[in-house]
From TrEMBL:
Organism: Wallemia ichthyophaga
Protein name (record): SET domain-containing protein
MF-aspect GO terms: zinc ion binding
Pfam families xrefs: SET, zf-MYND
Feature: compositional bias, Low complexity: 43-52
Amino acid sequence: MSFSDLAAKRSARLKQQQHQQQQRDKMDDVTDDIASDKKPTDDNPINPINRPISILNDDIQVEQTSTKGRGVFARRDIKRGTTVLSTKATMIALEHSYLDKHCSYTAIPGGTHGKPPLARCSLCKKTHYISKHAQRLDWPVHKRECECLRAAKTTPEDSIRLMARLVWMRDCKRADGDTDWEKQLDGLHETYDLLSEEDKVGLGERVRQFALYFTKGEVSRLQNSDVDVSIPYAMRLLNKIQTNAFALQNSDAVGVAIAPLAALVNHDMHPNCTSQFTRADDTLSVVLFKDVKKGQEITTSYVDQTLPWDMQRDALWKQYRFDIGECPKDNNEGSGNVDKDTLLNTVNAAEKFYFDDPLRAFQRLQPYYDTVESAYAPASRVRVRYLRVCFAIMITIAQLDNMPTWAPRLTVELGRKTVGALKLILPYGHPIRALTLAEVAKQMLADSGEERNMMELAVVDKLEKCVLALDESRMETQIGYGKDSALEGYLVEEIEEIRKEIQMRRLATVAV
C-alpha cells in the first residue's frame, strides 16, 4: 500500500466520523440529561434529616430530602471515572433516518464492528432488529406499532413514537399484572402545571399528531375505552417525555429514550457526573468526572455547562421550569467592547444554519474574532460559546468538496483554542473536554493534500503529534465516559491504525 493510499484511507475514516458528528449535532432539540424532582441542588454533603428510600448498589442510594425531593447520594468515597449506575432504558424510539441502521429494541447498530446485519420487519418494512430474539422481545409492543407505521403517511418523529410505545408497553404490563412498571412511569417528574397557556397550546398540537398516529387516523377513538388514553393523560405524558428524555446516543444521536432510574439524579450548576449512553446499545451510564465523598449528592447538569449563565438559565426554565437566578458576580462571564447580546445572537443565528451554508455562517462570525480574543477573558463562557460554534462550523467547511485551502489549518487552530478554553472551565475528564480533544486530533489527521509536499519525516512527526492528541483524549475519556466506552474503543483503534502507518513510513524511510 502506497503512502497516498494510507493517507486516503485515513481521510475516509475521518469523513465518516465527521458525518456521524454532524448527525449528533443536528439532534440539538433533545436534552442530553434527564430531569428529576425539581430544583437545582447544592454540591454539599448529605443533610442529616434526609430519609433513605432505597439502595441502588454498593456505591449509591436514593434519599428523600426535606427541600429538594428525591436525590442520589454516595454510600462511600468514590473516585472519578467510576460508573455508579448502569441501567437499561425503559423504552427507546429511533429517529426515523436510523430505523434501518440500528436495532429498534436494543439500539445496537447492525453490520459494523463485527455485528451481524439487521433483519427487517417483513410487515411494516421500517423497523429492524439485531436478532430474532430481540424481535420477539419487542413484538408485544411492535405488533401495534407495526399497524400504525403501515397506516401512517409519514413516519412520526421519535418522541411521538416513544410516547406510543410507552402506552403500548403500559398496556402489556397491565395485562401481565405488573404494576411496578407503570408506577415508575407515573413517578417521572412533570412540569405541566407550570406551563403557560401558549406552551400548552404547542403541547396540544403535538398530542394531536400523536393521536393521528396512535389511532391510525381515527382520533375519536382516543376517548374510547378500548384505547384508555385521555387527552389530559396524553398531555401530561408528553410533557414527561419532553422533561425526562435522554438523547439515545452512541456513535450518533440515533433517537430518544426514557430511563426512570437516571431521573433520580438532580441538577446542579457544579455537577460531578454525567448521564449518557456510553456504549453502542441502550445502556445508560451515570459516570463521575469528579471524586465524591460519602454522603455527598450525585448531581449532573441538565444543560450544556459551557453555555453563558443566561443561556443556561433560559434553557433550564424553558425545559424544567426552575430558575437559577442572576449570574454570580464571580462567574467570569466576561464583557467585551462589543455588546454581549449582539454577539451571542449572531452566534446563535449562525449555529442554526451552518449545516446548510457553513461558509456564510463563518463569514457572519469571523469579523468578531479579534474583538472576542482581545476583549473577553480566556475563561469567559461568552468566548467559549463563540469558539465552540466557530470550531463546529470549520469542521463542516473542512468536509466540503470545494474546501478553501485555508480551512484545515484554521480548523485545527480554532480547535486548539477551544480545547484551551474548555480546560479553564471544565474539570479534567469532563466528557465535553474529552470529545473536543478527540475532534481536534481528527482534524490534525486530515490530509488535504499537503502531505504530498512534505518530507517523509515531517509526515511522521505530524502523525506522532496526532497520536499524542488521541491518547490525551483517551485518558480523559476513561474518566468522563467510564472504562470500555464506545468512544474509548474508537480512540484505541484509531491510535493503533496511526501507529501502524507511522511504522510503515519509518520502515520505508530506512529502506530508502
